[in-house]
Amino acid sequence: MSRMLLSCLCVSILSASPAGADGPIRWHSENVQILKGFNYELGPEERTIITVEHAHTSDIGDLFLFTDFTFEPDGDIQAYGEITPRLSLSRLTGRDWRAGVVSDVLLAANYERGEGGVERYLAGAAIDLDIEGFRFVRVHAFLRDDPSRSGTTGQLSIAWNRPFEIGGEAFLAEGFADLAGAEGNGVANQLLVPRLLWDIGAHHGAAGRVYLGLEWQYWHNKFGVDGVTESVPQIQLKWVLH
Asked: Are 217 and 234 in contact (CB under 8 A)?
């Protein structure tokens, strides 16, 4: 698929997504995260990241977006963001697309943009899984295009969220994985980001609002650079605004 077709699909879903005038928003949530990590393989070895996330569902699908602000030791601030609109076939067609653990089938797109001309277009399909104990498990199969590299490739993206309790304490296991193929001069790379967070807000009358824990970023062949593997634990404080 050409870059123009990928761009058109992204724009089409964005224009019809919950970000537009598509009816009332059914649910929304926002949060701010502060992360601190050391020993990164590319760029400054130490950095602080502030992430702002937003998600909502509407009458035709859902939308997720985030922006990372990376504060480097020299005072420089780098920004990077992604937006992922999805169209629900169940809501669009009025028929039930459930099958086994599959609760819905969706059309999905993703647009990534960062400093230094970083830009990627992804488009494809997704399934939502209904697995006991999980708030959500989402699996996406994308065709991915990085305009700075020749050709296109595939990417499998998975996101999950599962609350649980141990000894009366509330925890949250969440995260995502992006598994991308080789593209142009870049080799196949795998990004795994699991998080384990403790609900410290539950001890101060704000259950489900403030979390403290650890995020582990494991990136094999980071940015598609052969032989560069990053394994970085990051302390995370997460504040759920809504």
From this structure: yes
Longest distance between any two alpha carbons in the chain, whole Å: 55
Mean pLDDT of 49-54: 94
Residue 23: pLDDT band (50, 70, 90) is low
Handedness of CA 45, 111, 30, 214 (dihedral sign): negative
* Cβ-based neighbour number of residue 156 at 10 Å: 15
pTM reported for the whole predicted model:
0.88
Answer yes or no: is pLDDT of 159 > 50: yes
| All residues at 6 or more sequence positions from 71 whose CB lies less than 8 Å from its CB, including other chains | 47, 48, 49, 50, 77
- State which H helix or E strand residue 37 sits in: strand 27-38
Contact 53, 66 (CB under 8 A): yes
Q: Which residue has the tokens 């065709």?
A: 143
Cα distances (angstroms) measured from residue 191 to each of 4, 155, 177: 27, 11, 6
CA distance 81 to 85: 14
Structure tokens at 188: 């196949």
